[in-house]
Each structure stands twice: as structure tokens, then as C-alpha cells.
Write a structure and sequence with these properties.
Bound molecules: zinc ion
Number of helices: 22
Distance between the termini: 52 Å
Mean pLDDT: 91
Structural class: alpha+beta
Strand content: 5-15%
Length: 487
């Protein structure tokens, strides 16, 4: 990947947070690498080296700066570079580290391992192993700095396997022991047992109230709750139950969401944080997206009026798909109350979870459930049972999806799932920035178009950001409608 050095230099000198995490600066002499927003006195241009990723800076021999903490920068946008293969491989590394090795990663994305290495070096400036190692180190540093998790458990939770390897890697990278780093962090917040607080950064602007309003309207009673500017939900991962809550950090200059996770097994933390990042679309580079969408006159005003709108993801792909099926041809409100009844009847009850009463029903339970009893039509009930069976016996999996097209085809083989539902799932469960629900009534109305084919044509110039254009049109149409209702 070639960085525009002039842009990098300007962003560095102005400490522009919109560029945070889009490139890193290695400072010759001090040997550290920094985020674009580093508060340390600005280095001379001739001593600065620019890198597209933290892993590339680390490979070049630079250490992470202890002041700006590169491990806290917003993530690399998943669509970085032009290579689909790299994006897919990055996604897999994000979901599961590199636990099965580079050979297996290469096989999954359908190229040879040497070619994958070349692609990584070209687009990210670092090998797959270096990228995975940097991720492990960054997450370990976050756990040391931001939680009180015992250091032995930090080693396991960040994927180092054993304490000895963890200690060696931290010392080599930070020139300090884990204990010394924790002492430096001077934590003041008291954290209850099994509770972990994280601050997840984003590149401003971020339209928090828009995100919250979207999630609030669709919050499944018992499983999700939105109040006091906080989103909260129950979770289950690898047999562990828990819950988390997300709110916007009140310090506007921090550009971060505060996340509180309650879970008994800290080894799930990495996966949980990655999912929350995806759910709240924290890696998006909104400015770049807006710049491209602004060319459409019907999008220009909404983009100006509501900067920073993101595409809400989801916690669990199966849950989202069930919600999408429930929502076919009924109002959002109607679907939400159906989902609540479904949960009450088939979800596992929880004790003491901050207002949350249930886990969302699992595919195992829904595969044979009598769903008409909660008010579903026989047709919808059949669709949900068929989806649950397909997930249950492994024909459909929402994790580690590589080939989006074949995933969507399998989804559409289920009677009752059409392309609208499939694209909606791709948009919110796979984080596909170019997915959009074809033929959507809300979009047709917002653009005053009657035929779905015309809509597809109209949406062509929005590529590769059709999901974002869709969010803007939905939100703006909704606002216009509520203004009308008031008047
Ligand atoms: Zn720095």
C-alpha cells in the first residue's frame, strides 16, 4: 500500500483524530512508533517514517509509544487496500488470531501461503504472523493497562498460550515487564469481580444517538436494553454467560465508547471485544465514506445534517437472521414484540443481569420449537425452524464467513428467505459495507422510485458503500416522517 506522505505529514502535525489508526509514525532516534494524535512533542519530518499498520512499524523495529498507546487506536478498516483476499484474511485473524498457522489461513482464503505473504506485505507492510503477533501484544497491553486481570490470565486471554512467552514478548516489545507496565497504568477505577472495562476508540465523527436509536427500536425485550444513553445485552460464548454494556465516553476529545463486560472466563474477552467493535462499526473510516457518497445530491444533505452515522452490526448472526425473518412485512415495533415473546418462551432465563432476563434462544432449541404458539404464522415458523436446523447441523455458519456469495446462496435456499433478508443479514451480520437490501420499501419511498430495478441502478454509484447510503436514507426518511407527524 502506498501512503500519501503529504496527507500523513499534515495529519501528524495537526494531530488529526480522523486519521487515527490509518497510519503510524516511526520516529528515528527514539525508536518508538506513534499514532497520528500523539501528544508528545512533534518530531522533525526527516526523522519520521510512515507505516500503513502498527505491525509494519513493529516489523521495521519500532516500539509502541507509551504515551499515545498505539494499541488504543481505532482498528484498521476491514476494506483497507484493494485486495479482497487481504480483507478476508484480516477478518479471520481478527476472529481467531492465527491459531492454525499461516498455511491454514492461506488455504481458507484460497491462495498459496507465499502469495498471501506477498499480498500482506504489499498492502499492510507486514506478514500475516507479524499482524497476528501485533494484535496479541496490543490486546495484552490493553488488558494490563485497563483491567485488573491477574497477569497469568492476561497471558492466556490475549492468546500467548503460556506466561513465559507472554513475559518475553512484552519485555522485548515494551522494554518493561508486565508488572512494571501495570504499575505505570495507575488504575483508579474499582472493578467488581469478573467485570472488565474497556475504552474502544473510533475515528470521529461518530453519530452515537443515531446508533442508539436504531438499536433501541429493535432491542429484543429481555435480551437487549437501551436506557440512559447506554446499550446493554446478555451474551453467551463458549458456554459462558454474561452481559455487557456500551456507552459514549463523556469526554468528547477521547473519541471512545466505554464498554463494561461481565463474564466468568476472561479467555473469551478478545472475541467479545472484537464482536463489540464490529457491532458498533468502530473501524469505519467515515470521512472517506462520506467524501464518496456526497456526490449524490440526495445524500449530501443527510450527510451534512448527521455526520458520523454507522452501519449497526449485531452480536450474533443467527439472532439477527431470526429478527430479520420476524420483521418481514410487519412493522419494526411488531417484530420487536414478537422477538420478545419468542425469547420469553424459548430463551434461557438469566439471574441478576442488570435488567436483562434471558439469553436469545439458541438454534438447538428453535430447530424443533412450536413457534406458532407465540404468534408467528405457520410460514414464518417454518422458515425460522429451517434456518435453526441449518445452523445446528453446520450447513450455515455465521462465523468466519469467507465466501460471501456462497453463504448468501445457502441462506436463500431456505424457503422464506429472499434476497432482501439475505442482503440485510450481509449488511449487519457480515459487516459488508457494500451490501444493501435490494428492493427495500423504505429506500424506494425515500428516493421516490417505484421499481426495485430502478433502485439498483440508482444505488450503483454508491458502491462500495451502499450499506452506509442505505442507513442515511432510512434515518433521513424516518426523521422527515416524524417531522410530518408533529406538524
Ligand atoms: Zn506517541
Amino acid at each position: 500500500m502506498t501512503l500519501d506522505l503529504q496527507v500523513c505529514s499534515r495529519a501528524r502535525l495537526s494531530r488529526d483524530p480522523r486519521f487515527d489508526g490509518k497510519f503510524f509514525i516511526g520516529v528515528v532516534g527514539s525508536g518508538v512508533y506513534c499514532r497520528s494524535i500523539c501528544p508528545a512533542p512533534t518530531a522533525k519530518e526527516k526523522n519520521c517514517r510512515y507505516f500503513p499498520t502498527a505491525a509494519a512499524a513493529a516489523e521495521a523495529g519500532f516500539r509502541p509509544c507509551l504515551r499515545c498507546r498505539p494499541e488504543c487506536s481505532p482498528g484498521t478498516p476491514a476494506w483497507l487496500g484493494t485486495s479482497n483476499t487481504v480483507s478476508r484474511a484480516l477478518r479471520l485473524i481478527g476472529e481467531s488470531g492465527l491459531e492454525d498457522g499461516v498455511e491454514s489461513l492461506a488455504e481458507r482464503v484460497g491462495v498459496g501461503s507465499r502469495h498471501l505473504r506477498r499480498l500482506f506485505i504489499h498492502h499492510l507492510g507486514a506478514t500475516p504472523s507479524a499482524v497476528a503477533q501485533t494484535r496479541r501484544l496490543h490486546f495484552a497491553k490493553k488488558l494490563i493497562d485497563e483491567t485488573r486481570l491477574p497477569l497469568g490470565e492476561v497471558a492466556l486471554a490475549s492468546g500467548f498460550g503460556c506466561v513465559r512467552r507472554f513475559n518475553a514478548a512484552i519485555r522485548k516489545t515494551f522494554k518493561r515487564t508486565p508488572t512494571q507496565i501495570r504499575r505505570l497504568a495507575r488504575q483508579t477505577e474499582v472493578q467488581p469481580e469478573n467485570e472488565y472495562v474497556f475504552h474502544l476508540r473510533f475515528r470521529p465523527p461518530y453519530h452515537w444517538s443515531g446508533m442508539l436509536a436504531f438499536l433501541a427500536a429493535r432491542a429484543t425485550p429481555g435480551v437487549e436494553l437501551v436506557d440512559h444513553n447506554t446499550y446493554r445485552r446478555s451474551i453467551s460464548l463458549n458456554g459462558n454467560q454474561g452481559h455487557f454494556e456500551v456507552s459514549l465516553n463523556q469526554d468528547a476529545d477521547r473519541h471512545s465508547l466505554d464498554v463494561r463486560v461481565q463474564i466468568a472466563d476472561p479467555r473469551s474477552l478478545f472475541a467479545i471485544i472484537e464482536r463489540i467493535r464490529a457491532m458498533f462499526d468502530l473501524n469505519a473510516d467515515w470521512s472517506a465514506i462520506a467524501q464518496s457518497l456526497r456526490a449524490d445530491p440526495q445524500l449530501a444533505a443527510p450527510l451534512r445534517a448527521q455526520p458520523g452515522l454507522r452501519v449497526p452490526g449485531c452480536w450474533n448472526g443467527f439472532e439477527l437472521a431470526v429478527r430479520a425473518i420476524l420483521g418481514q412485512q410487519i412493522t419494526v415495533k411488531g417484530a420487536t414484540s414478537l422477538a420478545g415473546r419468542l425469547t420469553k418462551s424459548f430463551g434461557q432465563p438469566l439471574t441478576k443481569a442488570n435488567g436483562l432476563t434471558h439469553l436469545f434462544p439458541t438454534p438447538e432449541v428453535l430447530a424443533d420449537a412450536k413457534l406458532t404458539g407465540v404468534g408467528l404464522t405457520e410460514k414464518r415458523a417454518q422458515t425460522i425452524r429451517a434456518l435453526a436446523r441449518a445452523v445446528n447441523d453446520g450447513r450455515i455458519s455465521f462465523d468466519r464467513v469467507i465466501d460471501k456469495e456462497s453463504f448468501l446462496n445457502r441462506l436463500c435456499e431456505i424457503p422464506g428467505i429472499g434476497s432482501w433478508t439475505a442482503q440485510y443479514v450481509a449488511m449487519r451480520a457480515l459487516g459488508e459495507p457494500d451490501a444493501y437490501p435490494t428492493g427495500d420499501l423504505g429506500l424506494l419511498r425515500a428516493l421516490a422510485i417505484t421499481s426495485p430495478r430502478d433502485l439498483d441502478e440508482r444505488a450503483e454509484p454508491w458502491r462500495p458503500w451502499r450499506a452506509y447510503a442505505c442507513m442515511y436514507l432510512w434515518t433521513f426518511a424516518h426523521e422527515a416522517k416524524s417531522r410530518q407527524n408533529v406538524a
